[in-house]
Amino acid sequence: VTEAIVRRFAGQQILVIGQYIDQLDELGEHLNAPVIKGETSNAQREKLFDAFREGEISVLVVSKVANFSID
């Protein structure tokens, strides 16, 4: 379902938020999108969030834990 939504809104900024890390990792692979989760360093999170905000990354997958740093 998520892949169909991403295809439908291709070219737009899409933030995918989930709970189960194994599913998020698999989804990130299928979507060719980075995954931010609890083990992601703060520096890497900031780099990915900045790239997402600037439009360099159109799809970003985050765990529920990681989404607390989104502004």
From TrEMBL:
One of its GO terms (molecular function) is ATP binding. Keywords: ATP-binding, Helicase, Hydrolase, Nucleotide-binding. Gene3D superfamilies: P-loop containing nucleotide triphosphate hydrolases. Residues 7-71 form the Helicase C-terminal domain. Transmembrane segments: none annotated. It comes from the Bacteria. The keyword Thylakoid does not apply. The keyword Hydrolase applies. This is Helicase. It comes from Streptomyces daliensis.
